[in-house]
Description:
Layout: E1 12-20, E2 25-30, E3 33-38, E4 45-53, E5 58-67, H1 93-110, E6 118-119, E7 134-142, E8 145-151, E9 158-160, H2 169-184, E10 199-207, E11 212-219, H3 227-237, E12 241-248, E13 260-266, E14 269-274, E15 277-282, H4 291-305, E16 312-316, H5 322-328, E17 333-338, H6 341-353, E18 359-363, H7 366-375, E19 382-385, H8 394-403, E20 407-412, H9 415-427, E21 430-438, E22 448-455
Bound molecules: S-adenosylmethionine.
S-adenosylmethionine (SAM) binds next to helix 5, strand 17 and helix 7.
Active site: 413
Pfam family, one: TRAM
Keywords: 4Fe-4S, Iron, Iron-sulfur, Metal-binding, Methyltransferase, S-adenosyl-L-methionine, Transferase
Amino acid sequence: MSKTLPVQKNDYIDVEFEDLTHDGAGVAKVDGYPIFVQGGLPGEKANIKVIKVNKGYGVGRMVQLLERSYFRIDIAQEEKHKFGGCQLEHISYEGQMKFKENQVRQVLTRIGKLENVTVHPVLGMEHTWQYRNKAQVPVGEKDGKLISGFFKPRSHEIVDTKESLIQLPEVNQAIQAVKEICSELGVKAYNEETHKGDLRHIMARYGKQTGELMVVIITRTNDFPNRNSIVEEIVARLPKVKSIVHNVNSKRTNVIIGDKTKVLWGSEVIYDYIGDVKFAISALSFYQVNPDQTKVLYDKALEYAGLNGNETVIDAYCGIGTISLFLAQKAKKVYGVEIVKEAIEDATRNAELNEISNAEFAVGKAEDIIPKWYDEGITADVLVVDPPRKGCDEALLQTIVEMKPAKIVYVSCNPGTLARDLRILEDGGYETLEVQPVDMFPQTTHVECVAKLVLKK
Ligand SMILES: C[S@@+](CC[C@H](N)C(=O)[O-])C[C@H]1O[C@@H](n2cnc3c(N)ncnc32)[C@H](O)[C@@H]1O
């Protein structure tokens, strides 16, 4: 089969990179046949070794860079990939923003057939390291000690990591401290092959504005050795901790969080502010990981909603009510819906905390609750959706098209599903006026977008 291809496995060839894939690999073409090479940048020339040939594409390894891009920055060999998931660490921030803008444009055109939509330049941030307020790391064992970090690409081998430079220092310190304490006090790491051992993951979340820290210990078993001493040590070594939570995940699964959650010490929530709005955040609730850029994102959603105080708004996939409460200050009434019960408890508490009385929340699937509301006569002038990566459920999109809110604000962390859903909404009578990418995840290939749609006359 490979005889008909323009390259063979183990060939050494000179190539020029034309593009980047969605996960940050360079794309070179030999007689139209694409070869993906980690680390190659558009405009660069390199000598590569072909390490894999498939029918439709090949994979290469960089041997020598022959011409370098203006956007390339040097990182020491030993630093490379040290931080896990930083696929764009070798590209200047200016280059990263260009990559993300192009990616959004290409996907909107290819998947959404949206050639004429205005895509604005990415709204980036000033400090592009140490921005994440949360980490959730797997735990393993090496030489009789606990290790934690990230999985090596395409493997389940944990790289023990003391510091991730995209995480806030408080988050790094918390993960290290909990790992060391558990190691010292004899906790065994969970082994996914034998389904034995206790500690599966450690999670830390930090309220950047309030300085409050939450630690979540995720184990296979209902109990683990020296639990009380571990809690005492965490409190002693991490002065900012306000909440220590235990979650039990007894299943053989890749899903991190299990069904049982119990507060071991302190409060069941930590607090944080986005702008002037205060939020209680419990262990299982979604909360944006980049607090500085979250304000930028929500301000854009508010601008696109264009509220004058008379509107009814529905916020689908509302989490702890963050966008809902931002909008409630400028709307007549806001209805939020979210699948996680604890997040809706937080949302209700957050409305009270901020003395916002025109927001109402429901637990359930957006695709079940919003059609039910529609049947009961609840409709929206503005509808906001902020779904997980898989995008909106088709039944929800169908209901939106029937309900016909004058405006839709679509917040998305996955341009692919955004483009797919925008096409469905366009076919249902909406026009996408503009898309604003916001960089919530510097050094990584991820990009968040806010899109503004209006009902066509
Ligand atoms: C990207 S988060 C957005 C949350 C919130 N808007 C924010 O900015 O913090 C997506 C949320 O959708 C929730 N979710 C997932 N599937 C859902 C569904 N079918 N119906 C309602 N909520 C869902 C998740 O639990 C999560 O809180």
